[in-house]
């Protein structure tokens, strides 16, 4: 467009910034930001809102710089920053922004409360979540929608009250959808609750029989308890229904080029060097206390094979590549299409400690900021 001397307008810039954020491509987003500044369009409300959203999705502190520089803010601005904090697991900051919004005379809407409830869920703020859920109707006359009920199920389930989450669903005044049952199943996976997990999965198999993620989550629950006959039944059911597991995929931007990896990847141009780096890491981490969590392997094979299977998950390949090609001490940013598995989460915590690197992973559910052997999620995801 620029080569053809056609200058982009605010709607085009907004679309491009949205694409940059969804891809997790901060360098591309910064280039578009620079173009907006040169065109004098960066301070307009629509473009500024898109910049805040893009930088949050790319895990960049520039989101706050843009927000603080804005002379005008609307409900979308506030919702964007509340949701951004929620995705990063910064529940208290999301609540603080909500309080500032109300103080500024901006009334919250349904989207605001989805962001707040997500923030509470990802930060373990159960009491606060209950208060916001009640506040919707009592203080603002807003009727909770399915999204809000799903957040409450997620909030209770993540906090370990799986039975309470199930009771909450049955007490709902509206028919639960797949998102709500999926939240319950996800909680059962985290807390290894077989019975409730089975009931949630049966509901999901009825509502969306072709969604592979539901079968995989139930299999994870069974495999964590060594129930291999049940795992085999789930795999058989998937085969009968023609359901294929979604492959894990991770990607990262290095010097304006996107690099993607799938589990067991053999296509990347530096795959042999990546594998060598990964093996060195694996050996070093085991010597410092890392123990592979083979509960996340869905096959009844011996422990050595399970450990080998875990080693080549896409996010581990991306981490190894980042260490291989970026300068020592440089932060590493990775995106993943699915929720990060527990073993990869532990692995990357160890990597951040041993290498003294800051590693950010945006998975299908939230951001994880790994620093010095800890994650911003507090192992609560």
TrEMBL record:
UniProt KW Repeat keyword: yes
PROSITE patterns referenced in this protein's UniProt entry, alphabetically: PPR
The organism's place on the tree of life at top rank: Eukaryota
GO process annotations (BP): RNA modification
Keywords for the protein's UniProt record, in alphabetical order: Repeat, Transit peptide
UniProt xrefs under InterPro entries: DYW_dom, E_motif, PPR_At4g14850-like_plant, PPR_rpt, TPR-like_helical_dom_sf
Cross-referenced NCBIfam families: PPR
GO molecular function: RNA binding; zinc ion binding
PPR repeats (start-end): 74-108, 109-144
Signal peptide boundaries: none
Protein name per its UniProtKB record: Pentatricopeptide repeat-containing protein
Residues annotated as domain DYW: 289-381
Pfam family, one: PPR_2
């Amino acid at each position: 467009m620029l080569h053809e001397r056609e200058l982009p307008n605010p709607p085009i810039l907004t679309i491009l910034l949205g694409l940059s954020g969804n891809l997790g491509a901060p360098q591309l987003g910064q280039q578009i930001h620079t173009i907006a500044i040169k065109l004098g369009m960066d301070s307009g409300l629509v473009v500024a809102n898109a910049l805040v959203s893009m930088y949050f999705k790319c895990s960049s502190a520039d989101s706050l710089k843009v927000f603080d520089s804005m002379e005008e803010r609307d409900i979308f601005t506030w919702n964007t920053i509340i949701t951004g904090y929620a995705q990063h697991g910064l529940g208290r900051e999301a609540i603080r922004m909500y309080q500032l919004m109300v103080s500024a005379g901006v009334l919250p809407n349904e989207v605001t409360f989805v962001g707040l409830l997500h923030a509470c869920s990802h930060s373990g703020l159960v009491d606060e979540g209950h208060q916001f859920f009640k506040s919707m109707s009592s203080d603002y006359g807003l009727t909770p929608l399915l999204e809000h009920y799903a957040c409450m199920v997620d909030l209770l389930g993540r906090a370990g009250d799986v039975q309470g989450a199930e009771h909450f669903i049955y007490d709902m005044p509206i028919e639960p959808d797949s998102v709500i049952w999926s939240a319950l199943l996800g909680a059962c996976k985290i807390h290894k609750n077989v019975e409730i997990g089975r009931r949630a999965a049966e509901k999901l198999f009825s509502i969306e029989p072709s969604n592979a993620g539901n079968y995989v989550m139930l299999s994870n629950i069974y495999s964590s308890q060594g129930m291999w006959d049940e795992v085999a039944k789930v795999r058989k059911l998937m085969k009968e229904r023609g359901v294929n597991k979604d492959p894990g995929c991770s990607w990262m931007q290095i010097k304006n080029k996107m690099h993607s990896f799938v589990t067991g990847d053999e296509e990347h141009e530096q795959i042999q060097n990546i594998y060598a780096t990964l093996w060195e890491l694996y050996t070093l981490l085991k010597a410092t206390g890392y123990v592979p969590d083979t509960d996340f392997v869905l096959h009844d094979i011996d422990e050595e094979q399970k450990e080998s299977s875990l080693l080549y998950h896409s996010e581990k390949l991306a981490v190894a590549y980042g260490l291989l090609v970026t300068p020592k001490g440089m932060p590493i940013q990775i995106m993943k299409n699915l929720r990060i598995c527990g073993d990869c989460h532990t692995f990357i915590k160890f990597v951040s400690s041993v290498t003294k690197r800051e590693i950010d992973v945006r998975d299908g559910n939230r951001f994880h900021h790994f620093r010095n052997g800890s994650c911003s999620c507090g192992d609560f995801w």
